[in-house]
Amino acid sequence: MQKNLTSRFRARVRKRVVPLGFVSVVAVAAIALSACGGGKAVQGGGDDTLIIGMTASDIPLLDTGLAQGQGYEGLRFVANQLYDGLTKFDLTSSDKIPTIKPDLAESWTANPELTEWTFKLRPGVKFQDGTPWNADAAIFNLERYVDTGTDHYYPELAAQGGLSISGVKSFAKVDDMTITISTKGPWAYLPNDLATVYFGSPTAIKKEGNQGFGQHPVGTGPFKFNSLERAKQLTLDANPDYWAGAPKLKQLILRPIPDPTARTAAIRSGEVNWIEVPPPDDVPALKQEGYDVLTNSYDHVWPWVFDTTRAPFNNVQVRQALNWAIDRDSMVSGILKGTAEPALGIAPKANTAYRKSNEVYGYDPAKAKQMLAQAGYPNGFTMTLSYPTSGSGNMVPTPMNTALQSDLAKVGVKVELKPIEWSAMLTDFFAGKIPDNANAINISLSFQQEGFWSMWFGSQSLPNVGKYSNPQVDALLAQAKTVASDQARADIYAQVAGILGRDAPWLVVVNDKNPRVITENVHGFVQPQSWFVDLTQVSVS
Fold first, then answer.
1. Other CB atoms closer than 10 Å to residue 291's CB: what's the count?
2. Which string of b and e fits 81-98 if b means at least 16 CB within 10 Å?
3. Nearest residue to 447 via CA among 355, 351, 511, 360
4. Which residues pair with 116 in a beta bridge?
5. Per-residue DSSP letter, 42
6. pLDDT per position as a tens digit, 367-379
7. What is the per-residue pLDDT across 320-356, written as a single tens digit (0 to 9) for each?
8. Which residues contact 458 (CB under 8 A, 6 or more apart)?
């Protein structure tokens, strides 16, 4: 059926030739195996060149973890292509939640206390400059993240890698292909968190210095650095010596296009053959024109994070009331055209902690008004929301927040919307601040790595910008670190999600379905239930 549809559209659609200088690249995660895409094919890049239009406003910094400078889109399209970690997510299926599998480590074991982990490293791997991957290279990179006593320690990298390395106490070389990592306490899901700790070539880092390495990055990943035009285009070439097999693409081009209308225009004009997050209003027309619009559930939440330390949001009834006051179904069907799902609880459906019983909210304005009156706000109140105008995983934040503003006005809550640039919001967020002295912040968040549960809700966590605190939640999060079984930990997080549903530290709105659009000449892409994507099996003809 897919081939018949493609043939029909191919006969209908005229190809356009575009100069290479205009082409570019970007991606997000969602559903499906694209054996043959629909829509116009890009000719300017030639065969086996994938050009992605990203939502980022600039090319994310190229140094290992610093690709997070534009949010996790930087890790997805830059870091995960240039580098490997000790572990990685299995992104080969569209119908199951990704699990962790070996990457630069072939295997690992932990002591009974889960405080010392032994990693057997993968033999025969080389960095793209020929430097061998071994225990010395691993230790050098870990020192760069955490060891302030070395010349190559990089504070900016340490700040970005905080989730994955903050609990590391020490590490050591056992032999040429074995290392140990010791932690400050039990850390049952260390292999999960290490998936975004990336390893660069010690030779290149020593040659270029910490900051210079970002302009001349060298990893072990499936693609290698070719050229960079700031804010315009990053060009990566296939690594023919990639240890897991060379990618099918010859070249990957990433282009930042933060405006969604401009991204759609770029794919329609033939400048790119893949875009992230099309304007939802354009989705029906893009499908009719023959493009593949791919979506899939993944563990993403689009919330407002309330400042729970100040009135009115120090009152749990107020927080619950607002969760009953918003019409999620209308937002999904109207504004988002089915590219998201209503979020009725904290845990997304594509997370192992999801339980139907934890879906506690719906749309009931009368109930919301009654709860506000019981909380002492019969006439409502005025609040301020800080929100990004675009950025990684933020969908279409201005119309979405305008709709929420309208919903809340119907129950007496007047919302002032204060837009902020995405990278500026990230700076404040990871510093533990809600920008502009607002009552709440709207920010795209994920639970893909287990440590995110503690980051977003642990009472001592800096990115818990709403300063939510519940001793029972802290105790469960601490317990999860001591439990080796993945399923048992999922049950613990389900308990956490149930408590959070009742405490309502967030206004949970929708779960993104990661929409992207690809042209007819892009083949072999699997849309996983993940923010990350595997581009090694993608081809362009």
1. 28
2. bbbbbbbbbebeebeebb
3. 351
4. 182
5. B
6. 999 999 999 999 9
7. 999 999 999 999 999 999 999 999 999 999 999 999 9
8. 464, 473, 474, 477
